[in-house]
Amino acid sequence: MNTKSFVGKLNQITKALFSMTPAQREIVHQSIQALDTEISTDELIQPLFDLSAQCPHCHSSQLKKWGKSGAIQRYRCKDCLKTFNNKTNTPLAKLHKCHLWEEYARCMTLRLTLRESADICGINLKTAFLWRHRFLKAQAGQNNDKLSGIIEVDEFFLAYSEKGSNILSHKNKPRKRGGNIDKRTKEGQVAVLLSIDRSNHMINPILSADTTAEISANFSQNISEDSVLCSDGSWSYVVIAKEKKCDHKRLINGKVRVIDKVYHIQKVNGAIAHFKSWVNGKMKGVATKYLSNYLAWFRESNAKLNKQQILIAAYG
Ligand SMILES: [Zn+2]
Fold this sequence. Notes:
Low-confidence stretches: 167-185, 306-316
Largest sheet: 6 strands, mixed
Radius of gyration: 23 Å
Bound molecules: zinc ion
CATH superfamily of the largest domain: Ribonuclease H-like superfamily/Ribonuclease H
CATH class of the largest domain: Alpha Beta
């Protein structure tokens, strides 16, 4: 864009901003931030095409370009003579309307709801739902980040939910979500561990039980020895810190909030609050069977969120 047309656009934008309500301005603000900090559209789409140059049928690397369907390159294997495109054997295999993926990925990077995304792309809800989870599956990495330095950790619980499990069967009966879960028993809840270090490395595995053994199995191999572990009073972390030769700062029951000015669990609690408000607010609750997709989505985009934004999300 040249300078003259930029100045013209800027004037239009400024005028539009002044005519908006504060809430509308906030949406614009968040969208701009999202452009800079969320996963980019390319990052969402590229892993889908990131096939090593191999035939998906016989793994030969002797390939020949074999025409295109739409924008998608087709190949033929010189050994087995079968053809394939770069969607074959990816989570996007057999999905259509690929010219809309970029737009859909953009909706996802803005964390729009299914209905909003479906409206923008002109697709139905069922397709929007299918695409979201294929895209997430394609880019969801493992919880294999390595944490070091000052490491904050905590667990949180989400109500077990079957929301959305009937979206593909065209039933429109609304389901109760959340509900009054007895917080003392933790029955009907799913436990998630979230740990983040001061360089924003993060893991957020789902725990099958809130026990020391389960926490250790999902956490110990991800932390470097000789780190400083900051946790609440939970005994599990005493055991793990000892095992990993980590210095351990326990912030017990909110009596002590910060030790030596730097050791606290506010960053991890901010991230947990951010995640919960995202899934329960914007996403209106998520089905437990898709929770790991949303955790991965959050983890990936968090890698780009700075500390300040997490705090704003947590306390704003
Ligand atoms: Zn082949």
